[in-house]
Amino acid sequence: MKILMVCLGNICRSPLAEGIMRHLVEEKQLGWEIASAGTGDWHVNEPADKRSIAVAKNFGYDISKQRASHFNKQMFDDFDHILVMDQNNLRDVLKLAGQEGQRRKVKLFLAEDAEVTDPYFDSALFEPVFLQIEERCKQLIAEFLDQD
Ligand code: 4NP
């Protein structure tokens, strides 16, 4: 299974989702491939925001080696699930989608159409965002395993 996490800049939220998910998947030896991308291209090839790197490190995850990439149409073919952090990401990703098979791969990361708040302009949000993403990653693994 191949899962892509998507946010706007690919430096705050989706790198956390990528790093946490990969860590948990490796612990369980599931062999799934995890990546992330941004709908914007400003930060391509940059490491994650230092606040995301720091909060992840505090909780035992190393996301320091990840680098930002820009979401592109090829990713609809390369991944089975494309999980987006908010409604703007959903709109921007679906703009690039072709037929129904591609659209069906795209879902909000959180359950019940909730959004992960962008913490970029409020440093106090990084820890709650981390905790929300970590909890949801655990749920998603259980849900995907259930669907198998
Ligand atoms: P992210 O946060 O989408 O969670 O990575 C952002 C990071 C950077 C920008 C916007 C959102 N930016 O405008 O540069």
Summarize the structure.
The chain is built from six helices and four strands. The protein is an alpha/beta fold and 148 residues long.
List the topology elements:
Layout: E1 2-7, H1 13-27, E2 33-38, H2 50-58, H3 74-78, E3 81-84, H4 87-95, H5 100-103, E4 106-108, H6 126-147
Parallel strand pairs: 1-2, 1-3, 3-4
The structure holds 4-nitrophenyl phosphate.
Plain-language structure description:
The protein is of the alpha/beta class and 148 residues long. It has a single domain, classed as 3-Layer(aba) Sandwich (Rossmann fold), CATH 3.40.50. Helices cover 43% and strands 13% of the residues. It has six helices and four strands, in the order βαβααβααβα. Strands 2-1-3-4 form a four-stranded parallel beta sheet, with helices on both faces. α1 links the parallel β1 (2-7) and β2. α1 (13-27) packs across α6 (126-147). Bound molecules: 4-nitrophenyl phosphate.
Question: What attributes characterize this protein structure?
Answer:
single chain, 148 residues, alpha/beta, Rossmann fold, four-stranded parallel beta sheet, 43% helix, binds 4-nitrophenyl phosphate
Bound molecules: 4-nitrophenyl phosphate
Counting structural domains, the number is 1
Radius of gyration: 14 Å
Q: Enumerate the strands of the largest sheet in spatial order, edge to edge or round the barrel.
A: 2-1-3-4
Name given to the CATH homologous superfamily: Response regulator
The count of DSSP E runs of length 2 or more, i.e. the number of strands, is 4
Outline: globular
What is the H/E order? EHEHHEHHEH
- Poorly predicted regions are none
- Mean pLDDT across every amino acid position: 98
CATH architecture: 3-Layer(aba) Sandwich
Give the proportion of residues in helices: 40-55%
Quick one: CATH class? Alpha Beta
Supply the number of helical segments.
6
The assigned structural class equals alpha/beta
Largest sheet: 4 strands, parallel
CATH topology: Rossmann fold
Question: How much strand content do the residues show?
Answer: 5-15%
The N- and C-terminal alpha carbons lie at a distance of 10 Å
